[in-house]
Design brief:
The chain is of the alpha+beta class. It has helices spanning 3-10, 23-33, 53-63, 72-75, 89-99, 118-142; strands at 16-17, 37-41, 47-52, 103-108, 111-117. Strand 1, helix 2 and strand 2 form a beta-alpha-beta unit.
């Protein structure tokens, strides 16, 4: 299954902030949207980085409370792994596991087209397994 199928089901809404947004602004977005990461993008919707709850916790450890006034670009992860919507889900699963990351931006022609979280990946895999189990039950019942 391709990543585009996941995006078709969940939609392509992406929560973004600009690199000069404060960490406080991004933390507020995380809380308001009940999400674990915000993509940092320029005005042209081109990916510049990602700022996750994990990045904020590390930032608090380094900077203390003053972290909240810093721009997101100061603590965001700049070297962001991304995938194309045409990539296979198995590739995405392997990369999330190997890189120990929970959010992967989906980019096509240098433009953000979505984001896939570990929750999306798990839901997709559970759906696949349930479908396979039903097919086996149907096969046994008609055999």
């Amino acid at each position: 299954m391709k990543i585009s199928a996941i995006l078709k089901g969940k939609g392509s809404d992406v929560v973004t902030a600009s690199p000069d947004s404060t960490v406080q602004d991004v933390a507020d977005l995380l809380a308001e949207k009940n999400i674990g990461a915000v993509l940092i993008a320029d005005g042209g919707n081109r990916l510049k980085g990602i700022l996750s709850e994990r990045d904020i916790v590390r930032g608090v450890s380094r900077h203390g409370a003053s972290l909240l006034t810093l721009p997101a670009s100061d603590i965001m992860t700049k070297d962001v792994f991304s995938c194309s919507p045409d990539e296979e889900m198995n590739h995405l699963r392997r990369e999330m596991t190997a890189r120990r990351i929970r959010h992967i931006p989906i980019v096509q022609n240098d433009q953000l087209v979505g984001i896939v979280s570990i929750g999306d990946v798990v839901k997709n895999r559970v759906d696949e397994l349930e479908n396979e189990a039903q097919q086996m039950r149907d096969y046994i019942a008609t055999g």
